[in-house]
Design goal:
- This protein has 209 residues and is α/β, with parallel strands linked by helices.
- Helix content is 46%, strand content 15%.
- It has a single domain, classed as Nucleotidyltransferase, domain 5 (2-Layer Sandwich), CATH 3.30.420.
- The chain contains nine helices and five strands; from the N terminus they run αββααβααββαααα.
- α3 crosses α6 and α4 packs across α5.
- It is globular, with a radius of gyration of 18 Å.
- The termini are far apart.
């Protein structure tokens, strides 16, 4: 379960950073950044917060709303950044993810003195010192909160894309390569929001010629 151990070890103003949406074939990649300004956080959040992948969609949405209330109360600052499908195609998914992370952290007020990032790679030329931790979203409250914000925000974006591009099941599959998604590609083709550098989409475009 997450704790304050990482934040306490580093000391000072520490933010957690995590991403959502590296694997899907369509839509942006999103990153969340959270810095707790107070430890006087709603106990309900701390009891439920965890790696977003371990939580149900309903629980993630509930914690998302609670985190926004904590931000309004001045107990935390957060930022959410995205990199578009076009940026993913231009930069590659890793660099686009780092770009989304930089955009998320740039929104924090006050600015952090250190960023702890889920994963095993660090972005270059970040705005503050960074550390990365594999499985950090299951260890740190800040990273876990960031993972939930990024996931819920991106899922909501995909629901909007589902209305714009019906027939692919984006509201359910979040852009992953499910049967509904593949059936939509076969029937309606590739949308402007698809990641054309991704192998399945690249192959589909080649077959369509």
């Amino acid at each position: 379960m997450p704790s304050w151990d990482m934040e306490n070890k580093i000391g000072g103003a520490v933010c957690g950073v995590d991403e959502a949406g590296r694997g899907p074939w369509v839509g942006p990649v999103a990153a969340g950044a959270v810095m707790f300004l107070s430890r006087e956080i709603n106990p309900e959040i701390l009891a439920q917060i965890d790696d977003s992948k371990k939580l149900t969609a309903k629980k993630r949405e509930k914690i998302y709303d609670l985190l926004l209330k904590e931000a309004q109360a001045g107990h935390l600052t957060y930022g959410i950044g995205i990199a578009t499908a076009a940026e993913i195609d231009e930069l590659n998914i890793l660099q686009a993810t780092f770009l989304a992370m930089k955009r998320a952290v740039a929104k924090l007020n006050p600015a952090p003195q250190h960023a702890i990032i889920d994963g095993n790679r660090l972005p270059a030329e970040f705005m503050c010192p960074t550390s990365c931790y594999i499985g950090g979203d299951a260890q740190s409250y800040s990273i876990a909160a960031a993972s939930i914000l990024a996931k819920v925000y991106r899922d909501n974006l995909m629901k909007e894309l589902a209305q714009k591009y019906p027939g692919y099941g984006f509201e359910k599959n979040a852009g992953y390569g499910t049967k509904d998604h593949i059936a939509g590609l076969q029937k309606y083709g590739v949308t402007p929001e698809h990641r054309k550098s991704y192998k399945p989409i690249k192959e589909f475009l080649e077959q369509a010629i």
